[in-house]
Amino acid sequence: MPVSTKQKLIAPSILSADFSRLAEEISEVDQAGCDWIHIDVMDGHFVPNLTLGPPVIQWIRKATRLPLDVHLMIEEPIRHLEAFREAGADWITVHVEASKDVSATLKKIRHLGAKPGLSLRPKTSVSIVEPYLGLVDLVLVMTVEPGFGGQEFMPEMLEKVGALRPRFSGLISVDGGINLETAQNAAQKGADVFVAGSAIFKEANRKEVIQKLRRSVS
Ligand code: DX5
Ligand code: ZN
Question: Which atom of ligand 1 is nearest to the CA of 14?
């Protein structure tokens, strides 16, 4: 059975939040009972979009006590790890495609006291992350091409979750196009963490959607 017995975690991605009221948006999903806050960092090189960096994360850190799950979509993230850790990142996920020395990058994240995660783009196969599974606590399977919120879930990515599950005892996270239906499908393949941006922030009642998501994955 690929299904994971670990607690399922709901991680709203603030990419789809109203950034002019970011602290309020975060406390709303915090009080609505989510587990982590997912923060997408984009550099305009690894992905075509630009978002935010450590100074904004410092303020997010003050707005919630929940773990901050920082997803770095940036080239050579090793250059910036101290800054993200000092800003308050608890989990730091890097892309396997973005570093010359993936092992050194993951080891540095752990050395800084954060939990290391490794992500793969839709076109990257599971065999590329396999050599690093012993160095990470989380694998983030991108279920859309990274760069933008609001895209459609790629159902072919479910196979990757299923392939990883028996080989990896840490957390498997899915990110991109997650809604009640796709979250349920990913949970059945063994995913543990469900990152959802537009599905949560486009709804007026965040509590209801988070509760529904939790039910659909358990
Ligand atoms: C995309 C980001 C996602 C994004 C998900 O590159 O990694 O975290 O915010 O947004 P939705 O849930 O709207 O697909
Ligand atoms: Zn993300």
Answer: 9
